[in-house]
Amino acid sequence: MKKLLSMILASVMVLSLLAGCGGGNDQPPAQDNTQTQPSDSQTPSTPEPAPAPAEDVTIQVAALASGYEEAYPGMWQEVCDAFTAETGIKVELICDKNLEDVIGPSMQGGDFPDVIHLATGREKGLTEQFIKDRNIAELTDVLTMTVPGESAKVSDKIVGGFTDTSVTNPYGDGKTYLAPMFYSPCGLFYNAGLFEEKGWSVPATWDEMWELAEKAQAEGSYLFTYPTTGYFDAFLYALMYSVGGPDFFNKATTYAEGIWDTPEAQQCFDIIAKLASYTNPVTPAQANDQDFTQNQQLVLDNKALFMPNGTWIVGEMAEAPRADGFAWGMTALPAAKSGGNGASYCWLEQAWIPAGAPNMDAAKQFVAFLYSDAACAIFAKGGAVQPVPGLTDNLEGDNKMFYAIYDNGADAAMGNFAAYNAVAGLGSVREVFLDPVNGLVNGSITQDQWMSDVKAASDQMRANIMG
Question: Are 333 and 187 in contact (CB under 8 A)?
């Protein structure tokens, strides 16, 4: 497990260079293999004491009810109760699978929760909209706060590098706006029991993957499915890293001029388009936030071999029926060439504070408490792992196997496409790069059309990078 963190850190040190992408410089920064630490300006040696308890304050916390909450119902409420017991600050919790629909209307009227746990990459793009509108409060000072109930600073409780990537520092200004929460190695999930029964080997290259697709087709199954196109973010990031390494990854995620005309980009487009041809055709109709579990069920029923996902899938589908002999398996994306490494994207969820939060000081105390030993222990009951030193040492069962993916030779990728200012007619990253996969599967768009749209949108994104 220690090797897992070291692999992630090594990747983060390269990919954290994306934090500087907001300046609009198309040239990739020089690679640096030294460990990145928060700057002295962010983490003074003397912790700032947490404000005194405020029994008369009630904050509102809005959290997504994801697969972790399903694995341990009441997880978020228990954390909120522990925070109240420690600080005296009361918490009104909103926890829902469709969180955007619950909090969206009131926020349009200017009524904001104090803390929101909602990652980027969701279908409705609420977090991305707040980032584009610069409506997220800066959290750099939270890193210097003392964790409520403990003597350690928040920065001491977060593995180095996790607050220095474009996932948490979207504006490239060296400041943290989104707190790194649950992280998960993402990859291709499959039924290991079926592979054992058929005597199939997990593909190590894409050529081997296409050979397996033909075997699956002969067995009346399909090679691939996906829950929603949003799950292609982790897939695309890992694919870009596998195909072109950190240099290509950095240029692609900062929309470098001409990057989508390179051989590496062409290989990425070709792989996804070919994968679409081997995808179960019912997938696009079910690829939405209401029906996505039906696509996940295709793997449990042996109607598709692989799907991109994260470690939360086990809890999310714990009660779902499955084929006899089913056992979870997970693999990194295959290597782009023989002898190369596969890649796994390190998915990182985020907690953040709206700029219009009515109880800013208490909200920051809550965010600081999320890294306490008490909160970490509660989250762990749901299988949610935070980037806190030592948490992976005691993993068991499926999680132990999942988090060992980097120990088994996969390269770790972390980072996001750079944030850009809203422009009329310019879609989100998901709309431009990911949603067209549905069209590739159902035949409503061609690969050439998708590539052309990506190139045109990328030019606009580059011209409007936030900085």
Answer: yes
**Residue 18 per-residue DSSP state:** G
Domain extent for 322: 187-344+420-463
CA pair distance 64, 458, nearest whole angstrom:
30
Average pLDDT for residues 131-152, to the nearest whole number? 96
Domain identity same for 127 and 161: yes
Dihedral angle sign, alpha carbons of residues 351, 357, 361, 362: negative
CA distance 414 to 253: 11
Q: Quick check: 305 and 224 in contact, CB under 8 A?
A: yes
CA distance linking residue 105 with residue 91, whole number of Å: 21
Report strand pairing: 58-64 vs 115-117.
Answer: parallel
pLDDT tens digit sequence for 361-390: 999 999 999 999 999 999 999 999 999 988
Does residue 265 share a domain with residue 132? no
Angle separating helix axes 263-277 and 447-463, nearest 10 degrees: 130
Token pair belonging to 111: 């009524």
Domain count, the chain: 2
Q: Which conformational region is residue 120 in: left (phi greater than 0), alpha (psi within -120 to 50 degrees), or beta?
A: beta
Structure confidence by residue, pLDDT tens digits, 58-79 = 999 999 999 899 999 999 999 9
> Is 405 a member of any domain?
no
Question: Do 146 and 47 meet the contact criterion of CB atoms below 8 Å apart?
Answer: yes
Residue 457 DSSP one-character state = H
Q: Which of 348, 349, 363 is nearest to 138 (CA)?
A: 363
